[in-house]
Amino acid sequence: MIIGKRIKKERIKRGLSQQQLGDMLGVTKVSICGYENGTRTPTLETFINLLKILNVTPDYLLGRDVDAVKEQGESYGVKIAREDMEIINELKKHRELYNKLCSNPQRVINLISHRFKK
To answer: Tell me, what's the pLDDT at 1?
Structure first.
């Protein structure tokens, strides 16, 4: 889960233990561990406090932090996760596969998914 990975990344970047972050938020270390592992979801109030303490935007924590850009340089009105951009950029290195995905995404994804089930 993106939110958990990013909470952990930002917590570590700031040199905070799970206990320290929990104390700052008024929750237990177990709650922080649950947020980071994706087994718990912070309340709205806790989420807002996380944003303040970690000094990050909601878009970043939720994984919607990369602007999608048209080739002419005009910005779209959407944001996508960095992880998604990494997948797209990696796919572009494999031009043939990328072109097949662009021509019929649902069919190609179904073929790949079927292949992994074997």
So the answer is: 61
Helices (H) then strands (E): counts for the chain: 8, 2
Average pLDDT for 13-22: 96
CB environment 15-31: b (16+ within 10 A), e (fewer) = ebebeebbeebebeeeb
Question: φ and ψ at 4, to 5 degrees?
Answer: -65, -45
Model-wide pTM > 0.90: no
For 79, phi then psi, to 5°, come to -130, 150
Contacts of 91 (CB under 8 A, 6+ apart): 97, 98, 101
The tokens for 46 are 């806790």
Domain boundaries in the chain? 2-62, 66-117
Look up the CATH architecture of domain 2-62: Orthogonal Bundle (1.10)
Q: CA-CA distance, 18 to 30, in Å (whole number)?
A: 8
